[in-house]
Amino acid sequence: MQLKLGFRNLWFWLFLTTTVFQVFRGSLIDTLIFGAGTVMVFLSAANLLNHVHLSKPHAHKFAIYTTVLVIILALSFVPRHTPLQAIIVLAILPFALRFAWYSDVGPKDKADRRIKRAQMAWAAGGVGLLLWEFAANILGQLDKSLKSFPTLSVLIDPVLDNVFGQAAFAVLWLIIGIGFLRLWKTP
């Protein structure tokens, strides 16, 4: 096994920056989540997790549908920003990691121009959103006002302050996560 420097991985720096940002915000749960992510990405980039050879897991559709329904109900009726909601989200995390973190094998298709343009558009949108959030959060905390420099969460909080908003957010959050993890795809 050849050790590499985990510091050379861009994801390490993104996770580390986000972790430091969560410390600045004073968000303990987010600090723990992104701190653990930073450590895992560093260990993976340094080839220290190469001994873990996980195959891509496959779940039955019924298990996926049932789990999604339970999570939607839980996140719809549990009050937001409470310890119980944090416990639910943290309980989901190991399962999401198991579906996301596996040994990638086989040949990869080369991206054509259309895919490359889409990748660049998503990357530009992501970086723009990241810069908005960082600037709004830092400026808002320095100004001691959430309204002067609103983050996206401040802007959408009024929509999420009822059961229907929470349910819609949970559905959207799960669809995006399941899409990224490709759980709908049959083995």
From TrEMBL:
The chain crosses the membrane at residues 32-50, 62-78, 84-101, 121-142, 162-184. Keywords: Membrane, Transmembrane, Transmembrane helix. This is Unannotated protein.
